[in-house]
Amino acid sequence: MENNLLPLELKDVSYSYEPDAAPAVSHVSLTIAPGSFVAVLGHNGCGKSTLAKLMNALFLPTEGQVLVCGMDTATEEKVWNIRRHAGMVFQNPDNQIVANVVREDVAFGLENLGVPQAEMEKRIDAALAAVHMTDFADRAPHLLSGGQKQRVAIAGVLAMEPELLIMDEATAMLDPAGRADVLETVRQLNREKGITVLWITHFMEEAAQADRIVVMDKGSISMDGTPREVFSQVEKVKSLGLDVPPMAEMAMELRQGGLPLSNDILNVGDMLKELKQCLSKSSI
Amino acid sequence: MLRDITLGQYMPGNSLIHRLDPRTKILLTVLYIVMVFCVSSPVWYVIPLAYILLCAKLSGLRVRQLLSSVKPLRFLLILTFALNLFFSSGETTLIQWGFFRISKEGLMTAVHFSMRLIFLVTGTAVLTLTTSPIALCDGIESLLKPLSKIGFPSHELAMMMTIALRFIPTLTEEADKIQKAQMARGADFESGNLIKRAKAMIPLLVPLFVSAFRRAGELAMAMESRCYHGGEGRTRLRVLKFQKIDLWAALVSVAALFLTILCGKWIKL
């Protein structure tokens, strides 16, 4: 039923923690297309986590409107429905697992929604299978690795069948292997189940894998486009205190050195192709 | 050192007693306590003794395991015994040694009360040894549910217990980490007298508390974002069900209770 509706729409949203304080988020307008994988990139304190909490009614905007599947987060009676549609995974894996056993933690959201027990079993099995944690269903969460805990948290959200999955710096506390693992799981869910993903991060490498990158700075959107569009502006990205993919940076330096390279090089493959073209031209 | 802390002493298993509904076990433990208090003279402890031995046999627990639960209470036990022995008034004097006087009645009371204590502790140990803390939580929640009609927060209480159980290992790990960090910077937790060691715990407890509060805030937010809004309209994944064995256990226990009462009333020893 929500297929025609946008999973998320922000209309000129501002939010301040205290009435007189500078807004943590100011005048942000953003529309997320169904089934897309959008990264919100920004360094610490740029307002990206505040933005995430505005998206499932944990915070209500001081100005503007947030619509989740067409529902205004300010309407009090729709809060639970909104939170079911916009599932959120947080940064610290330990602080979002409620139960002592993996499958019971996945059940937590379903119990809250009042799903009948038989239906619950089915949904838990499906959710655990989707994040490849079926074998761990009866384990104690505190014995799992960080990446596994985050996958359990994703399963907990997934069981509620959300339209939108908000990953609020969900990989920030993980080791590189765990990070890759969680990112791959979420990308797979996005590809195969068509779940819209909002990936909030300060890791450039992760954002580079999204369909679209929204760069935040000082509470507002400073750049918005495909990874190529964003990272081709090497100078601007760096001025915001963010990294650029090493190949994009190298391409820029080579361009400054006089090589006629195009400005949409992101990875080693792109670089090789462009360099080959350059060489074949110069050898003529 | 902090890793040794475990809550409860649950021994996983799949025996008849393990499979009983936690509510049955809690109620029967209460019944057992009543039974122990109904014992009128030390001789009739044979009934609770038989009952406990039956439980031990059915649950696969060793008597030694049950008795080890008495160990933490040994000082209380000795004190109970001594106080009753020396300060009970009785007519028949067994030993008179200066100021101290031990009477026959005093000896009987001392034995009686000490036995009562031992039986109470070992009996309740059967409950905690065969029931996982989670099952206990479920049982308590379910038993207290009728009280929620008069405003007793039974669901909230159970939720608090579950979360506490969930966070014990996490906080233990954290305390361990903080302790190591402090030790790396020269803190000394092991030497000195009791007061000095207690004082040394302050730099451990303060960060632990701060972090616990931070965790609580984050957990609350995570729970809210997963639609937690109290016990109302909530369904459960684990549903407790009484079975035939629960009925049998109840029958045997009630019979034992009646036997204890009757023996105490009619057969005077």
What does this structure look like?
The complex is a heterodimer of chains A (284) and B (269). Chain A is of the alpha/beta class and 284 residues long. Chain A is built from eleven helices and ten strands. Chain A is globular. Chain B folds into two domains: 9-131 and 241-266, no CATH class; 154-225, no CATH class. Chain B has a two-stranded antiparallel ribbon. In chain B, helix 2 runs parallel beside helix 11, helix 5 (74-87) packs antiparallel against helix 6 and helix 8 (154-184) crosses helix 10 (202-225). The model of chain B is unreliable at 1-6 (pLDDT under 50). The interface between A and B is medium-sized, with 40 and 28 residues.
- Uncertain parts of chain B: 1-6
The count of strands of chain A amounts to: 10
Average pLDDT taken over every residue of chain B:
87
Instruction: Report the order of strands and helices of chain B.
Output: HHHHHEEHHHHHH
Order of helices and strands of chain A: EEEHEEHEHHHEHEHEEHHHH
Through-space gap between termini of chain B: 51 Å
Helix content of chain B: 55-70%
Question: Uncertain spans of chain A, ≥5 residues at pLDDT below 50?
Answer: none
| Strand neighbour order, sheet with most strands of chain A | 6-7-8-3-9-10
Structural class of chain A comes to: alpha/beta
* Total count of helical runs of at least 4 residues of chain A: 11
Sheet with the most strands: spatial strand order of chain B: 1-2
Quaternary assembly: heterodimer
Shape of chain A from CA axes?
A: globular
Query: How much of the residues of chain B is beta strand, in percent?
Result: under 5%
Q: Which features does this protein show?
A:
heterodimer; A: 284 residues; alpha/beta; Rossmann fold; six-stranded mixed sheet; four-stranded antiparallel sheet; 11 helices; 10 strands; globular; B: 269 residues; mainly alpha; 2 domains; two-stranded antiparallel ribbon; 2 strands; flat
